[in-house]
Amino acid sequence: MGDELAGFLRSRRGRISPESVGITGLGRRRVAGLRREEVAQLAGISVEYYQRLEQGRAGHPSPEVLDALATALRLDDVEREHLRTLAGSGRRREPRRRAARPAGAARPELVRMLELVRTPALVINDRFDVLVANAVAARLFMLDGSPANLARKLFLDGGDFYVEWDAVAAETAGQLRLTSGLYPRDAELAALVDELRDGSEAFRGMWGARDVSVRTYGVKSFRHPALGTVTFSYEHFVPAGDSRQRLVVLVPVEGSATEAAVQLLAGWSLSPAY
Prior knowledge:
The protein is α+β, with helices and mostly antiparallel strands.
């Protein structure tokens, strides 16, 4: 993970203007953001040690050094945790798969719950694979029963399904980058990232920026070919027993046109869950 840590440090250093940390009057600069020696000074560590960190040659920095770097680079909470993960001090072990159900499958109790929910609801994993969706969600996202991945649909299938495409795309790339740091040996994730980098210039740029993101609630609007533009608030929940899965529930605003659209979708959706 040394190369990943080095790349992340370089990307965070490059986005900070010298003026924002009180460095002025140094004339023309050849690099964007801060210089290595400036980061080292702000963090209270030697320039030589920081250079080794950016070259992937410094081993595992202490929690104190990581905290100092996070402060110097003005990292938010998600970025701080990602820095610790890449440095090896906060890395989680990949959970053992339960033998009672196939790898990546949603628990039967979750599947049954989704079948009873009248608003769009689905279970995805942290690679954005759709593990199960109720019939209303399948209609909304136009899922046909074949394996689906929301990141692949977003970046490779084209179209204008997401009204806020730029924001959704940046958040998706950031969440995949975060997952990649936590599970560097996930071959399926690595294959998905390679596919997206090869097939989408937008994803390639976002992945190269090394931004990380966690979005667990918010509002999203979709352009549906039969319903027009519909808007939902959404919440992500982590089901008990599998930290790599997310239960996603989308709720229309009460009394809105989207609420009527969901009722229409529910009327169409007489088939079992996806």
